[in-house]
Amino acid sequence: MGVIIGPRVIDAGTSLLSVLISPVPVAAGYPSPAQDYFDGRIDLNEHLIKDITSTYVVRVSGDSMEGAGISDGDELIVNRALEPRDGCVVVAVLDGELTVKRLRVTPSGVILQADNPRYPDIRVPALSDLVIWGVATRCLHHV
After folding, report:
1. CA 77 to chain CA mean position, Å
2. Is 64 a catalytic residue?
3. What's the whole-model pTM score?
4. pLDDT digits (tens, 9 = 90+) for 53-68
């Protein structure tokens, strides 16, 4: 159902990962002879995280967001400081239950939409307790 398991805090000043970077793009067709060396390191914090004080990593459980490229066991980088907007993938708390869904704001109300046709939309009743916990900015997907 897209439930979140255990958000992890990313401490300020902590490096998630520093890895070697290739100076040329990697071809998906024929290989290039220039791709056999690497040119320095890249700090993934700079590319994946805009606000370290408001950013968390959460692990996804379930397949309700497969259409968005988010699979069971993937980890989402979630920024709690971002303004949730229509169409964003969000971590929401609805009546005390955590879920990952696409936020839809319509004239008739708020909908939490799965990106898997096997799951129905969740229309948020007016008297429900809905909190948008954060906006997903990246998905770390196993290949």
Report:
1. 5
2. yes
3. 0.73
4. 889 889 999 999 999 9
